[in-house]
Amino acid sequence: MLQIVLEQPGHFTAREAPEPPAAAGTALVRVHRIGVCGTDLHAFAGRQPFFTYPRVLGHELGVEVLDPGDAAGLRVGDRCAVEPYLNCGTCIACRRGKPNCCAALQVLGVHSDGGMQPLLRLPGRKLHPSARLDYDQLALVETLAIGAHAAERAALTRDDFVLIVGAGPIGLSVVQAVRVSGAAVAVLDVSDARLDFCRTRLGLAHTLKPGVDLEAELKRVGGGDLPTCVIDATGNAASMMSTFNLAAPGGRIVFVGLFQGDVTFHDPNFHRRELTLLATRNALPGTFRDVIRQVEAGAIDTKPWITHRFRLAATPATFPHEIANNPTVLKAMIEV
Fold first, then answer.
1. Are residues 71 and 179 in the same domain?
2. Is-contact 247 38, C-beta < 8 A?
3. For an engineered disulfide with 62, which of 33, 53, 79, 299 has Cβ 3.0 to 4.6 Å away?
4. In terms of pTM, does the model score above 0.85?
5. 125-136 pLDDT, tens digit each
């Protein structure tokens, strides 16, 4: 079968690979859709932490069950979203209901080979079926689940005013989750195109750019108050460290993005405001199921997301020239 491999930064190759062998507890699935995410772009550029080459990318997947094997609850033909976080089940994080930060976590397409191939064998418990969603929607569930998990970590209520920093795909997934919570939301980004997308396609009333009057503008939007929660999805050091000045007294800060370095902040300001700082990693199994139900119910609209498409076999030629470093790409979808 065809397999697309990122041999080294900036270079994909196509090769033939054998079909995956049977294994206990796994289901054989056919990959129909692969969403391209920031992790893939960073790996292509050589900037992805915890990554080794060569690697088969692809962890945002819409798949069809060909053979459920001995995996419970699955049937031939089931359409599924994939939870791509392969956890051990025995470490302290797994035992305490946090498999998303397992001490030995392996993420498909990052630590182990992912979905840029027609067939995969996956643990049955990592497949989340839906009778209503199409493969495009299923491939977007993982991205949406990351945003939903950030909202879960923030413990949002309808009384919150949330500032989301960064309007890339992960930031937009946070937007969707915050809107489901009923909290008020504003988005901050440096890109006019991304902010315009938020206004025209998502219907957001409050979109902001960084500037000398940012705190005053936030207070205007917040009825005189700074945001009770700031969620940063940029992975940019300066942006992340600026959030300590943007959250209201008693507020929360949630870091979704990450960078390879240290976060510093002014401790008196941190204590004076009694801020709560939270990290978020991946998403929980229940979050995948919640997102699927929300998309099925129409609470989350995935139609505006996909801006580019190409076939798996075209990846070596298309990815470098039409996807990487293309500011018009919001979400590219690979058809298998």
1. no
2. no
3. 33
4. yes
5. 999 999 999 999
